[in-house]
Write a structure and sequence with these properties.
Layout: H1 20-36, H2 46-51, E1 65-69, E2 72-75, H3 76-93, H4 98-127, H5 134-147, H6 152-161, H7 166-187, H8 195-210, E3 215-223, H9 229-248, H10 253-260, H11 283-290, E4 301-303, E5 306-315, H12 323-353, E6 356-358
Antiparallel strand pairs: 1-2, 1-6, 3-5, 4-5
């Protein structure tokens, strides 16, 4: 049997999402912070040059255009500058050779898409006369320092220690503030969040958590007679349906299993299976159990040469609270997710109206 977990308050951390401003600023600063320790790369290395198609025999980097957005060229040097915080993460975690080249290639593809998005957004900002002032940048830096419980001076020291210039850091903050302003202008008004959205997200989060939790089920397995044909299959299914109905209406599932199950290895234990996790049973059975609460009984399920009726006996306690308690944090999370979806749709619409050519 599963051990009973000690009582503890359920966590809201899986549901939380930052406010709109914090979401937008942190989306970049989190990436920046993750890359701080990875900076100060001494040269590109031959595998980086080969991934980007630069001749390795050359001692200097040959400039080239890696993308075009309308009449604006995005250069290889632009890409490499933005890649710098993340290259060493690849170097430190992926062995040299084909795997590293593939990881670097994926990194550059993702970054070039981001550079294209930023150019599209920048062009829209210019049309709308949207800009970011130096005062707004400094205020944002102060907020980032406060959120990370450090002083602005310590934040700058950390950036410089890891090879990132203050100008580059300020430029990253500027990009994200512009992103926030454009989202407020073009995206936020399209946002619609309803009860169905929140309940759907809640169900998804619960099922994602349940995939990591131990559970225990019991079953009644009814063997289909070999060579019995469709009539025998239907008869066994009908028996399974009757047993399911009896269990659902209060019948003793264990007693029904002992009396009717054809699985000799479990029937004497009332059909009780071993403790397991998702992935140990057939996928269709797992999917049904994921959606069940403890004590519920399934309708008949066909599995190979048998019909099954299952009962969810136990599941380890999860950390996600019930829906009503989670609702405030859940609303913030759903807002953040829908905002990002709407942002992506908006940027995709800009791409359709603008000549975009990726040459990487």
């Amino acid at each position: 049997m599963l051990s009973s977990p000690s009582p503890r308050p359920r966590s809201l951390s899986l549901l939380r999402a930052p406010s709109m401003e914090r979401h937008l600023v942190r989306r970049a600063t989190a990436a920046f912070a993750a890359g701080l320790a990875l900076l100060g790369v001494p040269g590109l290395g031959s595998d980086v040059r080969s991934v980007l198609g630069v001749p390795t025999a050359q001692a200097t980097i040959v400039e080239r255009v890696v993308a075009v957005v309308a009449d604006k060229a995005i250069l290889l040097s632009d890409l490499l500058q933005r890649a710098r915080p993340f290259q060493m993460q690849v170097y430190g975690s992926v062995p040299e050779g084909a795997s590293r080249n593939a990881a670097l290639s994926q990194l550059y593809k993702q970054l070039i898409e981001k550079l294209v998005d930023e150019e599209l957004q920048g062009r829209e900002a210019a049309r709308a006369n949207i800009s970011v002032t130096s005062q707004e940048i400094e205020a944002a830096i102060e907020r980032v320092a406060k959120q990370n419980d450090v002083t602005v001076e310590q934040l700058f020291e950390e950036a410089q220690k890891n090879g990132l210039s203050l100008a580059e850091y300020r430029q990253e903050i500027r990009r994200q503030l512009l992103d926030a302003k454009m989202l407020n202008l073009r995206v936020q008004g399209r946002m619609r969040i309803g009860e169905d959205d929140m309940r759907a997200t809640y169900r998804r989060l619960v099922q994602e958590e349940r995939r990591r939790l131990d559970f225990r089920a019991a079953w009644i397995r009814l063997q289909i007679p070999p060579g019995g044909g469709s009539e025998a299959v239907a008869q066994v299914k009908e028996t399974a349906a009757q047993l399911s109905a009896r269990a659902r209406s209060g019948g003793d599932f264990a007693e029904l299993a002992r009396r009717y199950s054809s699985d000799a290895s479990t029937k004497n234990q009332g059909g009780l299976l071993a403790t397991m996790r998702v992935g140990e049973l057939p996928a269709e059975v797992d999917n049904v159990l994921l959606g069940m609460e403890v004590g519920e009984v399934t309708a008949p399920l066909r599995q190979g040469d048998a019909w099954l009726v299952l009962k969810l006996v136990e599941r380890a306690e999860g950390q996600i609270p019930d829906y009503e308690k989670a609702k405030p944090q859940l609303q913030s999370r759903v807002y953040g997710e829908k905002m990002e979806q709407t942002r992506r749709q908006w940027l995709d619409s800009l791409r359709k109206r603008t000549h975009v050519e990726i040459r990487l």
